[in-house]
Amino acid sequence: MRILFLTDNFPPEVNAPASRTFEHCREWVRLGHQVTVITCAPNFPRGVVFPGYRNRLWQSEEMDGIRVVRVWTYITANEGVVRRSLDYMSFMLSAILAAPFIGKVDVVIGTSPQFFTVCGAWLVSRMKRRPFVFELRDLWPESIKAVGAMREGVLLRSLERLELFLYRRAARVVSVTHAFKRTLIARGVEESRIEVVTNGVDTERFRPRPKDRELEARLGLEGRFVAGYIGTHGMAHALETALAAARLVRDGPDPDRFRFLFLGDGAKKQWLQDEARRLGLGNVVFVDSVPKAEVARYWSLVDASIIHLRRTELFTTVIPSKLFECLGMGIPVLHGVEGESAAIVAREDVGLLFRPEDANDLVSGLRRLAGEPELQARLKANCLRAAPRYDRKAMAARMLEVLEHTVEERLLQNVGAARPR
Fold first, then answer.
1. Which of 154, 164, 310, 349 is the most exposed place for a label (fewest CB within 10 A)?
2. pLDDT score recorded for residue 339
3. How far apart, in whole angstroms, are the C-alpha atoms of residue 88 and residue 112?
4. Can you tell me the distance from the alpha carbon of 343 to that of 111, in angstroms, rounded to the nearest whole number?
């Protein structure tokens, strides 16, 4: 099967969309399929092109057997609705223009959260007369409304109409959560066209390992209980709650026992650093994004992983992908997200839940975990038992089944249409 995948995030970028797409495509190639990815010059989240790349009309490379075609886009940092929208639209147009030079394909996939990429995938599928699959990783534009980046109005309503149009035009919608599926069904999308393939973990890369002592010494974390946040520092993550927790710990008993490690970049990163300095939080350590191959070294330093999103109805439907990396590494989680992801944490017994945006509740969980070695050992063991159920290879195989079924279904439809009546 010849698969064409449109995504505006791809390695060497290290965010969740880039990892999911790369790991799925790599597995499909390993299983004997031809995969082409149309993406842009790597620049997320700072809007600066990574070393070794240029923002050109066309550049091609091969990554683990995947043909990667990078096209020109308007590049900007991951902040500001207007400039980011120009970024998204420029990728859509460039991808459409590049598609005729890709050659024959059997299926076209477009991935969200923003659906200008998905809109481009639908148009490319029309040009090539091949089925279109919508990979739904976020309910956009609802998510940008939830974090206050866009208000109700004509523009938002227009985007919501476009969103529904794309759902209905897709031969299949592959959702990363069951909650998303229920939302789509409630909005009139046929249940038979929606499949769920959750996020997962590359268990070969993310697995238990001893603490990296050199890194631990360099960051001043020796002898401390480390609460770590590794991921995007965005508006949705409300990491001011974690800073408030660090302040409570600093001002409470045994303040020197704990450290808070933040690794990553995003629209709120600079604000968080400035706020930590303003508050005099010497127990907080910030580290910029590192290559994917280095992330596990930093995970090894973490005794408890903080997973957090704003307290809003929309985020009860999401499952943060870092949860699965924690399972693979055997790291108990302090989970401040309600809904489907909290149900996974409770069902697998891999962490403690705290109320989103409640720093006192977060600190309570942190102190309990640090003070009960038996609890920590049990949660770690449960993480490692659960991880194989979310292995990325299994998830990639599940999505491949969906793609194969979609292509076969279209072939049967074409054969039926060609028969004389």
1. 154
2. 94
3. 11
4. 25
Per the structure block, which two tokens stand in for 265? 């970049």
CB contact set of 381 (below 8 Å; sequence gap of 6+):
330
Asked whether residue 167 falls in the same domain as residue 196, the answer is yes
Q: What CATH number is associated with residue 43?
A: 3.40.50.2000
Whether residue 323 contacts residue 344, with contact meaning beta carbons closer than 8 Å, is answered with: yes
Please state the domain count of the chain: 2
Which pair of tokens denotes residue 309? Answer: 């999103």
Helices 154-169 & 116-128, crossing angle to 10 degrees? Answer: 40
Q: How far apart are CA 300 and CA 213, in angstroms?
A: 10
Outline where DSSP puts E strands in 66-197: 66-71, 107-111, 132-136, 172-175, 194-196
Structure token pair of residue 55 = 């923002």
User: Cα separation of 216 and 64, whole Å?
Assistant: 32
Contact 16/318 with Cβ under 8 angstroms? Answer: no
CB contact burial 22-37 (16+ within 10 A = b; e otherwise):
bbbbbbbbeeebbbbb
**Among 296, 310, 303, 17, residue whose Cα is nearest residue 145:** 310
**Preceding peptide of 42 cis, ω within 30°:** no
pLDDT digits (tens, 9 = 90+) for 184-235: 999 899 999 999 999 999 999 999 999 999 999 999 999 999 999 999 998 8
Q: What are the tens digits of pLDDT across the range 395-411? A: 999 999 999 999 998 88
Q: Is the pLDDT of residue 277 over 60?
A: yes
> Same domain, yes or no, for 395 and 341?
no
Question: What is the side-by-side order of every strand in the sheet holding 34-40?
Answer: 58-63, 66-71, 34-40, 2-6, 107-111, 132-136, 172-175, 194-196
What range does the domain containing 111 cover?
Answer: 2-200+391-411
Q: Is residue 207 part of a domain?
A: no
Domain-embedded: residue 420? no
Strands 304-308 and 225-230: parallel
- The helix or strand, by DSSP H or E, that contains position 347, with its residue range, turns out to be helix 340-348
Chain Cα centroid distance, residue 344: 17
pTM: 0.87
Alpha carbon distances (Å) from 143 to 92, 98, 204, 231, 264: 20, 29, 32, 18, 21
> CA-CA distance, 416 to 410, in Å (whole number)?
10
